[in-house]
Known about the structure:
Distance between the termini: 91 Å
Order of helices and strands: HEEHHEEHHHHHHH
Amino acid sequence: MRRISRRARRKQLHRQISAFPAVLRSSRPGIHYTATIQATLTPEPSGPYDPDEIADRVRATLRTVAAAAVRNQDPIDLPAAQDACAQQLRKPQALSLADRTTTQVTASVHVVLADQDRAAVEELLTAVRAQALADTIASQRAEAIAKEFAHPAALLVRWLQHPDAQVTEPPGEADLEALARRLRGYPKDRDEPVELQLLNALRDFLAEFPKEEQKRLLIMLLANGMRAARKPSHADRVEAMATAEPETNEAAVAEGAL
Length: 258
């Protein structure tokens, strides 16, 4: 090694580790971060060390740490990648020197996207937005259809509208009710009011009891619960359903009157 002064070694080392680049993979194949890392050694090496050797080890160590920090970061969220990388590089990394002493290296970092990678992210965002729009439309269409045919009568009407429908041989009530029940169970939006969720659950529950006397008993139990909750007017309305004619009662339940 060529003999140089301590000041010259220190200056050469600082020049090589003060602002060096790193190209880091992101979570998206083909898209990379470009980072500029500024390292600090504590304490600084002393004695006749080789600044090139130490600089190589510092750069290799910090690039490895930075790469691990952003490997699972989405380039769509560049600030999050910046924070994750900076957090890891602030942690001291032990570095063994040739004279068997140990120093610690920390660093600051600035993470950006090169022009080509930025363009790739824009294309990715465009594709994500288009897919999200298509998914939303498809979900709304499916939910609307499920809501429309959540009652056996609606299913029967649609069946009758089919050109090949045999009017004299309609599907059975059990089949229509089973299909309607499946449609009522279609996954709902999390923002759907709890009252509507409860109404659907109650309608399915009552449908499990085909006999009228069973339904009347359940309705009376519901009315008793309303009276216990000090809601007599609601209880009276429910009890009126229990004493109504069967056909009227079925229609009220089907329409979600409960």
